[in-house]
TrEMBL record:
Residues 52-178 form the DNA/RNA-binding protein Kin17 WH-like domain. SMART domains: Kin17_mid. It comes from Drosophila rubida. One of its GO terms (cellular component) is nucleus. This is DNA/RNA-binding protein Kin17 WH-like domain-containing protein. Residues 177-199 are annotated as: Disordered. InterPro entries: C2H2-Znf_KIN17 (IPR056767), DNA/RNA-bd_Kin17_WH-like_dom (IPR019447), KIN17-like (IPR037321), KIN17_WH-like_sf (IPR038254), KN17_SH3 (IPR041330), KOW_KIN17 (IPR041995), Rib_uL2_dom2 (IPR014722), Znf_C2H2_sf (IPR036236).
Length: 390
């Protein structure tokens, strides 16, 4: 039976049946032909054109397999780059959009048997960041285009310059502190600015000297209109006593103001929405895994993609990959070492000095770096965590 002529009802019916995706098992990748049913696929495999394609494939199977795999990977990565960019996306969602195109290269013609194998291969070759969760595999595209590399280099240079400025300011503040301590030890008088104070009921006297001006009454005599001044007139001006200032309203010293401004700047720069760090002790607070792991302590072995971590439970030794939303920090006993995981002193090791249960905050002492020995108050519970092994 010949093909239906263009425009006939039979031709239109065939077109409507062929529209959209058909079953994968009735598709021939070598011939790029989709059959609608088992009988049609059987007839196609017995055709002369299909046999010729099989002979070509038998001559160099590796070449055809490589070409199909490369074409599939290029199409998948192009869709990931153009459609999703560098956002973390479910790999199966990208695959569903890719196969929606009718003439795509099918995965059963490639070197990968499953989508998971393909995603793992992408992660090993460094094309994406692949991570497995309870909802399946997720991928994040790594943009290595010249424009992206240039933007990244500019951002790194800017961050380095800001860090250098912070380090210089910190070094300047430390020098000022050391100089002030040295002056106190030597007993040398230190220049200090204080507010104006005076004893109670003591009038304020101003010594004002004005140049002597021309006085007409010295020549012509006093005017009759000028009356004699009272004998109790004085040359001093007395002002009303101002209200005394309270001790709490005394202004801070210039050094304290510089330190305060610097801490605010560091707080804005280092406050992030992620806080996981390796080698800290955390508590698992999710009940989704059952009572076995609920509220159990674990150590963070590896941080994955900033927001997820691979943890090892201290009691059982079991390992899990979890999101930071399922974890919380652990506060150790006093005089134990902690790591500042968020805020102005992010990444600094410190010593727990004081615990304020009423305000849910602590006081810590920085252990290393140019800020060694500094006491930091009002640090929130969620900004510090116990260091494993201390």
């Amino acid at each position: 039976m010949g093909r239906a002529e263009v425009g006939t009802p039979k031709y239109l019916a065939n077109k409507m049946k062929a529209k959209g995706l058909q079953k994968l098992r009735w598709y021939c990748q070598m011939c790029e032909k989709q059959c609608r049913d088992e009988n049609g696929f059987k007839c196609h495999t017995m055709s002369e054109s299909h046999q010729r394609q099989l002979l070509l494939f038998a001559d160099s199977p590796g070449k055809f397999l490589h070409n199909f795999s490369k074409e599939f990977s290029d199409g998948y990565m192009e869709l990931l780059r153009r459609r999703f960019g560098t956002k973390r996306t479910n790999a199966n969602k990208i695959y569903q959009e890719y196969i929606a195109h009718k003439e795509h290269v099918h995965m059963n013609a490639t070197r990968w048997l499953t989508l998971s194998d393909y995603v793992k291969w992408l992660g090993r070759t460094g094309q994406v960041v692949a991570d497995e969760t309870e909802k399946g595999w997720f991928v994040t595209y790594i943009d290595r285009s010249p424009e992206a590399m240039e933007r990244q280099a500019k951002a790194e240079r800017k961050e380095k310059m800001e860090k250098d400025d912070e380090e210089r300011m910190t070094e300047f503040i430390e020098k000022q502190i050391k100089k002030a301590k040295k002056d106190d030890e030597d007993g040398e008088p230190q220049e200090k600015y204080t507010e104006l104070k005076r004893e109670e009921e003591q009038p304020l006297k101003l010594d004002i000297r004005l140049e002597k001006k021309f006085q007409p009454d010295s020549i012509l005599g006093k005017s009759a209109l000028v009356t004699k001044r009272s004998s109790n007139d004085v040359d001093e001006k007395v002002f009303k006593k101002p209200k005394p200032l309270s001790a709490e309203s005394n202004s801070r010293s210039a050094l304290d103001e510089i330190i305060k401004l610097e801490e605010k700047k560091k707080e804005r720069a280092n406050r992030k929405d992620y806080w996981l760090h390796p080698n800290i002790v955390v508590k698992f607070i999710s009940s989704s895994m059952g009572d076995k792991f609920y509220k159990q302590k674990a150590v963070v072995q590896e941080v994955i993609d900033k927001y997820r971590a691979k943890i090892k439970f201290l009691d059982t030794g079991d390992k899990l990959k979890v999101d930071q939303a399922h974890l919380e920090t652990v506060i150790p006993a006093l005089d134990k070492e902690v790591l500042v995981v968020n805020g102005a002193y992010r990444g600094s090791e410190a010593l727990l000095k004081k615990l304020d249960e009423r305000k849910y905050c602590v006081s810590i002492e920085i252990l290393h770096g140019p800020l060694k020995g500094r006491i930091v108050d009002n640090v929130q519970y969620e900004d510090i965590s116990k260091i494993y092994g201390t």
